[in-house]
């Protein structure tokens, strides 16, 4: 609102009003009143004040990645996390120019990259696999890379990641079995849910298994785990799950996809849903958030998150889709899928 009481109508007027307000709040400093500080000689030096690489790296890890850039115009994410650059193969020259610019920047700020630790990975069948350099040194080509705890292979099959997580979960199960002599249902559930299951669920929206061997291998972790309870060891796997009220891992992944889709479509996640889905308006029975199912020319595209969830999402009833919060959606979808939560359905 302007000082005369009229409302502002343009971005320029809004900026002017805000500028005038902040100017009135903060007092401008008169440069003529800044005192001159005389140069002083110190008799002793700070011999205990030592700066080394380990100390600098320690404080860099403590940087808050959500903060803005400082006076040096360097974003905290650049110095805290691994730097990643990507581009389509048609723009290989642009990617090389970016690498050169990045190295020049690191050299200017005395934060040089260790080229021997840098890697390049190529995706796609028809990828020419161009060789990229940094400081005129060829970057090592690799077939897989771990990023945010997930191993990405150049064929995007995630078999290595699934295998590593299964091995980790099984090793923890073995540790639990050797450590706890008495294992009732209550103790098992607390240990399994807290220590084992997260290893085979973290990031599964990305590495969602589609091969039968991978699906069975992941599920066998929970099969083995539920057999650790003597009282129900003689029951079938599905019966053991019902006794423990523990959904199958296959169902958990399906449920997780629906929750992620709900967050994206309802604007809870800071992601534009148009990047993943096309909402269609229809007069048929059902909810108003039905998604269009485009044609997929490859099985890889068909397995993508934005494609595999469409049938399940479109078949959800109105009362589930109309949930106001994520917690309400979880309760509603659990009630709707109560009869299938223990089944080994993909």
TrEMBL record:
<protein>
    <recommendedName>
        <fullName>Reverse transcriptase domain-containing protein</fullName>
    </recommendedName>
</protein>
């Amino acid at each position: 609102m302007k000082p005369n009481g009229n409302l502002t109508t343009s971005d320029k007027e809004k900026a002017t009003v805000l500028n005038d307000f902040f100017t009135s709040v903060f007092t401008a400093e008169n440069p003529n009143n800044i005192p001159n500080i005389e140069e002083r000689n110190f008799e002793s030096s700070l011999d205990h004040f030592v700066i080394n690489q380990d100390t600098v790296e320690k404080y860099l890890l403590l940087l808050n990645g959500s903060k803005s850039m400082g006076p040096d115009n360097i974003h905290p994410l650049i110095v805290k996390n691994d730097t990643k650059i990507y581009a389509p193969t048609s723009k290989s020259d642009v990617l090389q120019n970016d690498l050169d610019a990045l190295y020049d920047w690191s050299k200017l700020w005395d934060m040089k990259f260790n080229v021997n630790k840098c890697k390049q990975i190529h995706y796609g069948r028809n990828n020419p696999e161009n060789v990229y350099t940094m400081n005129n040194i060829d970057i090592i080509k690799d077939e897989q890379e771990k990023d945010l705890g997930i191993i990405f292979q150049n064929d995007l099959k995630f078999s290595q990641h699934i295998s590593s997580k299964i091995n980790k979960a099984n090793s923890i199960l073995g540790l639990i079995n050797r450590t706890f002599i008495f294992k009732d249902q209550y103790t098992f559930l607390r240990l399994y849910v807290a220590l084992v299951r997260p290893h085979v669920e973290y990031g599964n929206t990305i590495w969602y298994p589609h091969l039968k061997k991978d699906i069975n291998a992941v599920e066998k972790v929970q099969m083995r785990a539920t057999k650790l309870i003597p009282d129900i060891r003689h029951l079938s796997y599905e019966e053991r799950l019902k006794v423990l009220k523990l959904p199958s891992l296959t169902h958990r992944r399906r449920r997780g996809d629906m929750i992620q889709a709900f967050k994206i479509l309802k604007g809870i996640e800071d992601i534009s849903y148009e990047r993943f889905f096309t909402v269609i308006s229809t007069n048929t029975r059902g909810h108003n958030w039905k998604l269009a199912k485009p044609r997929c020319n490859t099985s890889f595209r068909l397995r993508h998150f934005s494609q595999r969830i469409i049938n399940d999402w479109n078949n959800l009833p109105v009362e589930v889709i109309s949930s106001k919060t994520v917690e309400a959606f979880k309760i509603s979808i659990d009630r709707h899928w109560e009869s299938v939560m223990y089944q080994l359905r993909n």
